[in-house]
Specification:
Length: 306
């Protein structure tokens, strides 16, 4: 007797819905595609501004791609990805394009033991290490001893390193300094913002003296980076009438309002002191990222303009 021969469909895959239009950390997170077969080999093509950045192939059987595998993806951007799969020697078609967003550039913190310590020229300070970084900028500026606002009283010194440590130079004796660090990516193509400042000092500055008699004191006067999600609300979202309303609960703080398009380009910048109606009628339809920043806090949310 004869037998029917049944051929399997051409293998296909797509980006899992969890990751479509999601905010993803390019230094630590991954994206996932739908499984097809145990022998699957997937190609992942990334694009920005309509141009292909690179194509990455994952190992056989793997349907997960860590973004730090890429040499092109950075923070605070909008990318598109499409995926195809090869199975049983047959390569299927590319999936549809899907968009995702990378998260804001992270802050870098100094090691806690650095704050309120005596460090002279030739001494080293360290910070936390971030994936994807190609360097760090370190800023030191003289301040009045134990000033909780870290207000500079003289010119700043900026040092650069390729690792998460730097040897200090250019410091004056008997002087307190504020110090902070910010990360550099893609050899300077993208630079973060300075994280929390704290106080150090050279010999004779008096830094740390006020803490010696208090065993319960916190050895750091770091200003902690926090979120503003309990103080800032945006509506409506999506924006359909060209007006975005921003409700500010804390009326005693000045905020910087920044709006980026899906390509990471800054489209709007202003100072926000109270609840306001922002006219977005001149903006093109699409996705935007709204950032509200105070001295030591940050808020961001994706909005749609229709």
């Amino acid at each position: 007797p004869g037998y029917d021969i049944v051929f399997e469909n051409v293998p296909t895959t797509r980006l899992s819905s969890t990751y479509i239009s999601a905010f993803i950390n390019p230094g630590a997170d991954y994206i996932v595609a739908s499984n097809t077969h145990l022998d699957q080999v997937m190609d992942w093509e990334f694009s920005e501004f309509g141009s292909i950045l690179e194509t990455i192939q994952t190992a056989q059987g793997d349907n997960r791609l860590y973004l730090n595998t890429s040499t092109q993806l950075v923070f605070n951007r909008a990318y598109t990805v499409r995926i195809r799969v090869t199975s049983c020697g047959v390569t299927g078609p590319w999936s549809e394009y899907n968009q995702f967003f990378t998260t804001d550039i992270p802050y870098v913190s100094l090691f806690s033991g650095t704050c309120n310590s005596i460090i002279n020229n030739g001494g080293a300070v360290n910070c936390g290490t971030l994936l994807l970084t190609t360097g760090y900028f370190w800023q030191l500026a003289p301040i009045v001893l134990d000033d909780p606002t870290f207000t500079p009283i003289g010119p700043a010194i900026v040092l650069e390193s390729t690792i998460s440590a730097v040897v200090l130079s250019g410091l004056a004796p008997n002087t307190a300094y504020r110090i902070a660090v910010k990360p550099v990516f893609a050899n300077g193509a993208q630079v973060g913002e300075y994280g929390a400042f704290c106080q150090i000092g050279t010999s004779g500055s008096g830094v740390g003296m006020a803490l010696e008699d208090n065993d319960n004191s916190d050895e750091s006067t770091n200003l902690q980076i926090s979120t503003l999600s309990d103080k800032i609300t945006l509506y409506p979202n999506p924006v359909t009438e060209g007006i975005l309303l921003i409700n500010v609960l804390d009326k005693d703080t000045d905020y910087s309002l920044l709006i980026y398009n899906s390509y990471g380009e800054l489209n709007y910048k202003n100072v926000l002191r109270e609840s306001s109606a922002i006219d977005l009628s001149s903006f093109q339809k699409g996705s935007y990222i709204v950032k509200v920043v105070s001295e030591n806090s940050i808020f961001h949310e994706r909005i749609l303009i229709r």
